[in-house]
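Supplementary Methods S3. Complex input for the adenosine-5'-diphosphate-bound model.
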Amino acid sequence: MATKKKTTTNKTSKKTSAKAEAPRERDEAEGAAPGGEAEIVVEAPAEAAEVLREPAELAYADQLEALRQNDEDRPPASWRLSPRAVLRYIVGGESLAASIDGRTRTVEITRKFFGDDALVERAIVTLASERALLLVGEPGTGKSWLSEHLAAAICGNSSLTIQGTAGTTEEHIKYSWNVARVIAEGYALDNLVPSPTMNAMRTGGLLRFEEITRCVPDVQDALVSVLSDKAIAVPELPRSPLVWAKPGFNVIATANSRDQGVNELSAALKRRFNYVHIPLIADARTERAVVTQRTTELMQRYGIEARVEPAVLDLLTTVFREIREGKSNEGVGLKKPGTTMSTAEAIGCALDATLHARYFGDGRVSAADIARNLAGSVVKEDLGDLAALREYATLVAKKRAADDPRWREFHEALTVAVR
Ligand SMILES: Nc1ncnc2c1ncn2[C@@H]1O[C@H](COP(=O)(O)OP(=O)(O)O)[C@@H](O)[C@H]1O
Ligand SMILES: [Mg+2]
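Predicted complex, serialized as structure tokens:
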């Protein structure tokens, strides 16, 4: 094992979460091949965080402020940062001197989204244009994550969000009324309950519309007028006034490619969106970097004291990739399960294994912890997927067990878990 290196120390202030710690995770996230790296060690925070999950604009406030102070270009109307600075926030990889809370210090900008930088550029350019942005891809490819960070960097508010479901109504998209007050006082602008869309329009901010294709077409169409007129009419009021959007207003929607059959976007709406397709992470190294960085952040958030060796995370990402691709590194064909086996699920499995090691083990995450939690990630509604794991245990893990103790441990625990 390489030298031990702490990614966090005891937290002394409740504000230290991802903001202060994130920069130090970089080394691991983009480090060299497994073996030559430090173990991830997370110790218990001195105080529990006040909220389970801060929005990106709070969690990464120092990085956003440092980029603002170092921004050399002019931001578009209502934007907090110039497009170039937004890109630098998303792709990370630099250190900036900035005055934070009256003290000058160096702030490292961490990578938020791992993938093609050109794709992020196109997303940013779209948000500065007349058209809205639609991020499309398989579940767990980081669409919501990218959308949150774009909103945080561009307008400083990622919480103007509508979650699309079969039950989403036109009122959720436009506005509703405080019924008790309308009965008492009649229709008046004060009695109107604005939607996140209306709030984004009034402030020149970004509306995040999650899983837009889950909404029925009639409801999707409510968005057409918002996107084309950049205004919402309120016909219940005298002279049907319009609530106009301030410059800067735009929409970032996400859609799962697996849901496309559920409700296609209407032709009218399609024309108003630029599509950016988010692919599954192509190479193993990048995927391991994402899993390492996010697992560390989540361990900090939950205040779990645990240790993870890079080789164990390497084994985890290898398993996920091979099963997802239906082929082992040695070229053995494998059954593909019904689940996506996305990077997000790999992160979930790593966190479960960490919790397991912390609460029922000695705090060191082993390959056996990964094996025990793998079944929960892979086998969802289709119990037939257990067969895919059994096959992986015999055709792949067993072979590697002969000359690698970690794979041996993994194989033994997986065989028991899938029995
Ligand atoms: N390319 C990526 N870069 C950074 N994080 C990613 C990437 N792909 C997945 N993730 C991580 O996976 C998790 C889930 O992603 P999410 O945005 O919810 O997926 P989606 O909305 O596409 O279903 C997040 O914690 C995110 O950090
Ligand atoms: Mg999502």
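Residues 324 and 340 are 7 Å apart (CA to CA). The first strand starts at residue 5 and ends at 6.
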